[in-house]
Write a structure and sequence with these properties.
Strand content: 15-25%
CATH superfamily of one domain: PurM-like, N-terminal domain
CATH topology of one domain: 60s Ribosomal Protein L30, Chain: A
CATH architecture of one domain: 2-Layer Sandwich
Structural class: alpha+beta
Radius of gyration: 29 Å
Number of strands: 42
């Protein structure tokens, strides 16, 4: 029996008012007079009238809502109704939660074939036409994951209800497993690798559509062809799909692994891992790394009892297609990386980083030449991504404590969505080091959490190629944080400490095909260096019937972990999961066969040697070719005053407040927040944050991050160096120490087989080695996303290609012995003395100031990009550490984008205090007012010092470059004078604060 429960607001509908305003901006001439929003729950279950009534009461907040069953609520007059709901098969988190609530309230569980589907109803009144309603519907939904329906008022009122639509998945019947002939031409091999396997329709051998990208080039396809020719058989579809996932750039990181130019061991082993190995050796007994590059996250020492972990992921491609689904999947996915570290770490904090296009850019872009696959505009992407990270983190009970946002037109089609998680894990569990895990021969292969659907299929291969018209909608997933929260608690709070499993990992890229095969590598085998596994694919729980074995095997449906459970502990494990509402299924067994075997109803449909699966992909030697770059210099302003330019810089999204994002995230849950995302009387965004993961302890964990995409336009080496220096400086400025600071790398590149882009990549990776070793900060984890390109069309059918600027995110994590000694960036007290530590040079190339001056002219960004002197900066940071430790510092601001003037402005706004400044004694080789105010030279910090600490501070700083530049004042004005005493900046806090909050207020 199918029923519908309507939930309508009582009284004033604030959501409707907001939508009315937005609808009237859609070029429909202000025709919308009123909008009412109603939530709908379509229930496909056998419920009695009494049970329906109880369900409606349960789903209604009686203070602000009213409900009706199978009849429309009283919402007044309207002209049309627009219904927005999920497409069949798309994860409906609210619907799933509603199903559980109904089960609780009626006292019995709804069956596996019973479901609740949610939708939103927009009752629109006014002089609107059906054409107007279609414009409204397009603004409300994403056709990749959502459906819409428009119904005229007369039809609705006639039945006093809307049609009952049950979005069930009905899959066409296909041959479960097919062989894929590879004795074909090279052209056909290329086509299979690029477009996918050609399906068979019905029960015949009739050719159908291609399944989607395998991301296998010709050399890979020919290796596979030879392998199966030697076996004297064709591969099955599931075997070929499994090889594609495992060999994808997303999983194997082939660009970093392959030799390039004269770097025979590849970039990763030579520079990233090489730097960490050298640093750890140099640190000797002071090495604080526990587990690096060998697990889902990196782990470092917190204290004698605990370790902390960190991992940062990207979810760029899915977020371009479905921003909400892509972002929520990213954050819950990196949470699972934490849960899957060692024997299972508890997620204690989340971080984010967003690189977006200009939110005012409304140019239509399409993936296909027929102009049917429209890309979402930047504002829709921004709103969806932010909401996705919000829901994923907040609903999981994990604080979101750290983040940033950047804007550049080149992120228009493909945003960069960074998400990270910090974990906490006892160092010893059941008498064994907790970071060590190993599946055993004979252990059951167990999956827990969510069921499998068609969502997420080809996610790994999709992320390994440029986005175009062939990008599959099935690559999009939507995470369910409630399901994952139950899973997480059951693992890290109970099963882990009871010793009910021997190994755990998440089902991320490639789904079961990767998680099972990766865990099988752990098993000792006398036959080869790898163990093996055998899986009965029909035992995997499904969201709906009709999925093919290959789909089940590679699906990236969310909330799933794979575990190895000893046979004698299976019952206890299963009983525990069942009692906590976590689905657990035994799908196979780990072996020492050195083969990965999959069966379907007893028949072997996949049998691949582990050696070939993991190491069979061909080696590819890469070559680079550097292209010289030279840019024009923008015209500098005349005269002395630069007040106008400071205020304009503060208005930009790259410098101004992003509190409109920070305020959407809960950073207080778990009660460990110390330095918060917003701080001071003026609520400025902090550049580093500190959490206390073990509440009885005064030890803290400092978190910071940095990137400079624009610098790569001039020099990728210096871009990477600046990212490392700023991430480190941000952390040190709040109280961290170089002695126990670690970093993570996230490379987001474009057109990565292009020789010039490879040359830029080599420069960036070499900088990573030089500056990680120079500062003694080991890399503990990392990730790369190498094909952030868009190839599509404008609204006239003209080809459009957009590539992101080569981007490197560096994240820093460090343990702080005493959180009571931490320092924040807001000015504290009138009369405090202001110092500038470090040197300022003429380094305005690709700076925010030059971008402001040049406008849209990207050829006038200058050439003098900031350069990092790690020897000089190390001395600065060591001195600052001592000053903070001795409590000599009142406030500390790391100077980054926007330079010295913008840092001063932030300090003043944060403390709601003024400052009187002279740049006369500034150290360095800066020759112009513009450089002294807005250069982004590295290694600099603005600090304020109480008068009683001035002598001690200056004594401590005597061997490093620093200058006394001014004093904090009560007059609520920021005055900066040049060498001759002229005011180069003269403004007040009201104007500074207004400019700093301008972008945030605009985006709210």
């Amino acid at each position: 029996m199918i029923s519908r429960i309507y939930i309508a607001p009582k009284g004033k509908d604030s959501r409707g008012i907001l939508h009315q305003k937005s609808f009237n901006k859609l070029d429909i001439n202000g025709k919308v007079a009123h909008v009412s929003l109603v939530d709908s729950y379509t229930i496909d279950a056998k419920l009695s009238s009494d049970e329906l009534a109880k369900s409606a009461i349960t789903l209604t907040n009686p203070v602000i809502e009213t409900h009706s069953i199978n009849t429309l609520p009283g919402i007044g007059d309207f002209s049309f109704v627009c219904e927005i709901g999920f497409l069949p098969g798309v994860t409906d988190n609210v619907g799933q939660t509603a199903k559980e609530e109904i089960s609780d309230c009626i006292g019995r569980a709804l069956g596996a074939n019973e479901a609740v589907y949610t939708s939103r109803l927009f009752f629109v009144s006014g002089n609107v036409t059906e054409s107007d309603m279609k414009k409204i519907a397009l603004s409300l939904h994403n056709p990749l994951i959502e459906r819409f329906g428009i119904t005229e008022a007369g039809i609705v009122k006639k039945n006093n209800s809307l049609p009952l639509i049950v979005p069930q998945v009905i899959l066409p019947k296909k041959i479960p497993v097919i062989n894929v002939p590879l004795n074909v031409s090279d052209d056909e091999l290329i086509k299979i690798g690029k477009e996918g396997i050609q399906d068979r329709d019905g029960l015949s051998a009739q050719a159908g559509s291609r399944r989607g990208p395998l991301a296998l080039d010709l050399s890979s396809m020919k290796i596979i062809q030879k392998h199966f020719r030697d076996l004297q058989r064709d591969p099955t579809d599931i075997e070929l799909e499994s090889l594609a996932q495992t060999w994808s750039e997303h999983c194997k990181h082939t660009i970093f692994a392959n030799s390039i130019d004269d770097i025979k061991d590849g970039l990763y082993k030579t520079y990233i891992k090489g730097a960490t190995n050298l640093i750890r050796k140099q640190k000797g007994k002071n090495d604080f790394c526990i587990s690096v590059f060998s697990d889902n996250s990196g782990g470092i020492v917190f204290d004698k009892d605990f370790m902390v972990t960190h991992k940062v992921e990207t979810h760029n491609s899915p977020s371009a297609l479905d921003p909400f689904g892509g972002a929520i999947t990213g954050i819950v996915g990196v949470n699972r990386d934490t849960i899957g570290f060692g024997m299972g770490a508890k997620p204690v904090a989340n971080m984010y980083g967003f690189c977006f296009g200009n939110p005012d850019d409304k140019r239509p872009l399409f993936r296909d030449k027929n102009l049917t696959q429209k890309m979402l505009p930047p504002k829709r992407i921004i709103d969806g991504v932010i909401r996705g990270v919000n829901v994923g983190g907040n609903c999981s009970g994990i604080p979101t404590v750290s983040g940033f946002a950047r804007y550049d037109d080149r992120f228009r089609a493909k945003p960069l969505v960074f998400v990270g998680t910090i974990g906490l894990l006892p160092r010893i569990i059941n008498g064994k080091p907790s970071h060590e895990k190993c599946a055993q021969k004979g252990d059951y292969i167990v999956i827990i959490g969510g069921k499998v659907g068609a969502d997420g299929i080809h996610g790994a291969t999709f992320s390994s190629v440029a986005m175009d018209s062939s990008s599959p909608a099935t690559a999009v997933q939507i995470g369910d944080p409630i399901t994952q929260k139950k899973l997480s608690d059951a693992i890290v709070k109970e099963a882990r400490n009871l010793g009910l499993y021997t190994s755990i990992t998440d089902n991320g890229a490639g789904g079961l095909s990767c998680s099972v095969a990766e865990m099988a590598k752990e098993i000792f085998s006398s036959n080869s260096k790898y163990g093996g596994a055998i899986v009965d694919i029909e035992k995997v729980p499904l969201k709906y019937p009709g999925l093919m074995p290959w789909q089940i095997w590679i699906s990236e449906s969310q909330e799933r972990m794979t575990l190895s459970v000893p046979k004698d502990k299976w019952k206890a494990f299963n009983d525990l999961m069942e009692s906590r509402g976590v689905l657990a299924c035994r799908i196979g067994e780990f072996t020492d066969s050195s083969h990965c075997v999959v069966r379907h109803n007893g028949k072997i449909i996949m049998d691949i040697e582990m050696e070939f699966l993991h190491n069979g992909l061909p080696h590819r030697h890469l070559e680079s070719l550097a292209m010289p770059k030279n840019y024009a210099e923008p015209d500098l302003p005349k005269g002395n005053s630069r007040t106008k330019y400071l205020l304009e810089l503060l208005k930009t999204g790259n410098i101004g407040s992003f509190k409109w994002i920070s305020e959407q995230y809960d950073h207080e849950v778990q009660a460990g927040s110390v330095i918060k995302p917003l701080f001071g009387a003026g609520r400025i965004n902090t550049d580093a944050q500190i959490i206390r993961p073990v509440l009885p302890s005064m030890k803290g964990v400092a978190l910071s991050s940095s990137l400079y995409p624009s610098y790569s336009d001039i020099n990728a080496y210096h871009m990477a160096a600046c990212a490392i220096d700023t991430a480190i400086r941000n952390a040190v400025a709040c109280g961290a120490s170089l002695d126990n600071l670690a970093i993570l790398d996230n490379f987001c590149w474009c057109s990565s087989y292009d020789k010039n882009r490879l040359a830029e990549l080599i420069k960036a990776v070499r900088a990573c080695y030089d500056y990680a070793v120079g500062y003694g900060t080991p890399f503990i984890s990392g990730k790369d996303s190498m094909f952030n390109d868009f190839k599509g069309y404008d609204d006239k059918g003209n080809p459009v290609a957009i590539s992101i600027p080569p981007t490197l995110l560096i994240s820093a994590i460090g343990v702080i012995p005493d959180i009571n000694k931490c320092v924040t960036p807001d000015f504290k007290m009138a009369g405090d003395i202001i110092y500038l530590i470090g040197e300022t040079h003429d380094e305005l190339g690709a700076s925010e100031y030059f971008k402001l001056l040049s406008g849209n002219n990207t050829s006038k960004i200058g050439n003098n990009v900031p350069k990092v002197d790690f020897k000089k900066n190390t001395k600065i940071y060591r001195a600052l550490e001592k000053a903070i430790y001795k409590k000599l510092i009142a406030s500390s601001i790391s100077i980054a984008s926007g330079g010295f003037a913008c840092a001063l402005a932030k300090g003043s706004i944060g403390g709601m205090l003024g400052a009187n400044i002279s740049i006369k004694n500034m150290k360095g080789k800066a020759t112009t007012i513009d450089s002294k105010l807005f250069s982004e030279s590295q290694g600099r910090i603005v600090v304020t010092v109480g008068k009683k600490n001035v002598a001690s501070f200056e004594k401590l700083m005597k061997n490093i470059p620093f200058a006394k530049i001014g004093i904090v004042s009560n007059n609520k004005k920021l005055i900066v004078k040049d060498e001759k005493g002229n005011n180069v900046i003269d403004t007040n806090l009201k104007k500074l604060s207004g400019s700093y909050n301008y972008f945030s207020n605009k985006m709210e």
